Amino acid sequence: RRQHPLPLLLLRHLRPQAHREPPQVYTSSQPLRVGYYETDNYTMPSPAMRRAVLETKQSLEAAGHTLVPFLPSNIPHALETLSTGGLFSDGGHTFLQNFKGDFVDPCLGDLVSILKLPQWLKGLLAFLVKPLLPRLSAFLSNMKSRCTAKP
C-alpha cells in the first residue's frame, strides 16, 4: 500500500501554480515526522475513531515514520467562539432560511428553537446558565448576530 495517496492526488488535480511545495517532498523516501492526537480533551472520540487513529499511527510507524503525540491548544475558544461565531454570525438567519416551510429533523429541533430566540433572550440565558453550564453559555453568547444590518 502507498503511504501518501492524498498529496499525490492533490498534485495531480490542482493547478501547478496552486501548489507551492516541490514535488520531491512527496516522492521522497525519507521518513516523515507526523503529529497526531487521539482526543482534544473537549470532545471525546468514539471508540472507532480512536481505533482508526491508533491503527494509522501503527501503520505509519511500521513504515518507518516518526509520530509525535500533541494536544491541540485552546479548543474551547476554537469551538465555542470561532466555529459558532462563524457559523451563526448573522444570528442563524441564513441557517433558518433553509427550514422555512419544511420539516425540521428532530436532531436539529433544539438548535432551530434556540436560533429563533430574540438576541436579548439568548444573552440573558447565556448569563443565567453560565455557573451551571459554561459551555452552553459560551455557545449561546456566540450565536448572537454580529451583523450591522437587519436580515
Automatic annotation (TrEMBL):
Gene3D superfamilies linked: Amidase signature (AS) domain
Pfam families on file: Amidase
InterPro entries associated with the record: Amidase_dom, AS_sf, Endocannabinoid_amidase
Matches recorded under SUPFAM superfamilies: Amidase signature (AS) enzymes
Domain Amidase: 22-144
Database matches in PANTHER family: FATTY ACID AMIDE HYDROLASE, FATTY-ACID AMIDE HYDROLASE 1
Name of this chain's protein: Uncharacterized protein DKFZp434A091
Organism: Homo sapiens
Gene: DKFZp434A091
